[in-house]
């Protein structure tokens, strides 16, 4: 005669792992869509020799009136120099996005502020000419 032996209860972990992975992917996708793309629209100059650059560490925009903007903050050239002045300034990549109507003097003031801070990698943003 056989005696009834109760089976040990066990927790199925595979479906729980599937659910947790699904939740992780879901939250990552939602978080990526929650991060707004920041930037200032500008009317860049065009160039027939414009090339693709790596994403800059610092993007400086200069409008037609000479207003300097970094991360949605309006700065003076002296404030820009103070912001960029770090011990690792030589490895900081700065891209200057000057408006098509911005004067050369305003762009040179930004470049001088960057060089005063110790930045050596400075690029100018442009759109490809059609």
Mean pLDDT: 82
Helix content: 25-40%
Largest sheet: 5 strands, mixed
The number of distinct β-strands equals 7
> What general form does the structure show?
elongated
Overview of the molecule:
The chain is of the alpha/beta class and 130 residues long. The protein has a domain at 46-128: Nucleotidyltransferase, domain 5 (2-Layer Sandwich). Helices cover 32% and strands 19% of the residues. It has three helices and seven strands. The protein has a five-stranded mixed beta sheet. Helix 2 (77-84) runs parallel beside helix 3 (104-116).
Q: Could you give a short description of this structure?
A:
This protein is of the alpha/beta class and 130 residues long.
Topology, please?
Elements: H1 14-34, E1 46-47, E2 58-62, E3 68-70, E4 73-75, H2 77-84, E5 93-98, H3 104-116, E6 121-124, E7 127-128
Parallel strand pairs: 1-7, 2-5, 5-6
Antiparallel strand pairs: 2-3, 3-4
Helix pairs in contact: 2-3
């Amino acid at each position: 005669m056989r005696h009834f032996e109760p089976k040990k209860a066990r927790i199925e972990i595979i479906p729980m792992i599937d659910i947790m992975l699904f939740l992780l992917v879901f939250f990552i996708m939602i978080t990526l869509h929650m991060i707004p793309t920041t930037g200032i629209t500008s009317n860049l100059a065009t160039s027939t020799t414009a090339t693709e650059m790596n994403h800059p560490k610092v993007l400086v925009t200069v409008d037609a009136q000479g207003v300097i903007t970094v991360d949605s903050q309006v700065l003076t050239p002296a404030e820009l120099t103070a912001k960029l002045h770090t011990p690792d300034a030589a490895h900081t990549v700065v891209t200057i996005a000057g408006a098509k109507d911005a004067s050369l003097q305003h762009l040179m003031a930004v470049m001088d502020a960057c060089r005063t801070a110790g930045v050596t990698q400075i690029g100018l943003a442009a759109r490809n000419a059609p």
